[in-house]
Amino acid sequence: MPADSMVPGFRFGVFFLVGGLVPNPIDIRFQRVSGLNCSVQIKSHREGGQNLYSHRLPEAITYDNLVLERGMVVGSPLTIEFNTAMSQFKFAPSNVLVTVFSEDRMPVAGWLFIKAYPVRWATSDLDAGQTSLLIDTLELAYTRMQMIRI
Questions:
Q1: Which residues, 6 or more positions from 105, have their beta carbon under 8 angstroms from its beta carbon?
Q2: Does the domain at residues 3-37+64-149 carry the CATH identifier 3.40.30.10?
Q3: What is the value of pTM for the model shown?
Q4: Is 137 helix (H, G, I), strand (E, B) or coil?
Q5: Which residues, 6 or more positions from 64, have their beta carbon under 8 angstroms from its beta carbon?
Q6: What average pLDDT score do residues 10-24 get?
Q7: Local structure of 56: helix, strand or coil
Q8: Distance between CA atoms of residues 110 and 146, nearest Å
Q9: Of 39, 62, 67, 145, which is most buried by a Cβ count within 10 Å?
Q10: How high is the pLDDT of residue 4?
Q11: Measured distance CA(111)–CA(33) in Å, rounded
Q12: Average pLDDT taken over every residue of the chain
């Protein structure tokens, strides 16, 4: 594959699409995104009298949770939304678009997560012996994922 058709994995943005509003610039910057995958569940069906093999039939699509990591941010709308979900059990699902950019800042690929909502929020350990930043890990479940290739 030619080098000019390779897509760098370090230029990306995460856009929470809520009510058609422009996302807060703080809430699009993450240092790591994972969970960009899906798979097909297979169901085995044995045919009567056939002992050599079984039919393997597609049954359903399953998705991993979308996991976002960033330095702790105080007062961002996304932090407020996660806090509401985790402390009041009130959820406001939104669509989330993860976009990969080329060297000239043009979108080249993406993943659209439909009806995403928070399911886990974790903060890295506090350690007086380290000088590292606090990292928040935000995990979202969603209904469906659509891959986009431009």
A1: 11
A2: no
A3: 0.84
A4: strand
A5: 35, 37, 38
A6: 79
A7: strand
A8: 8
A9: 145
A10: 60
A11: 11
A12: 89
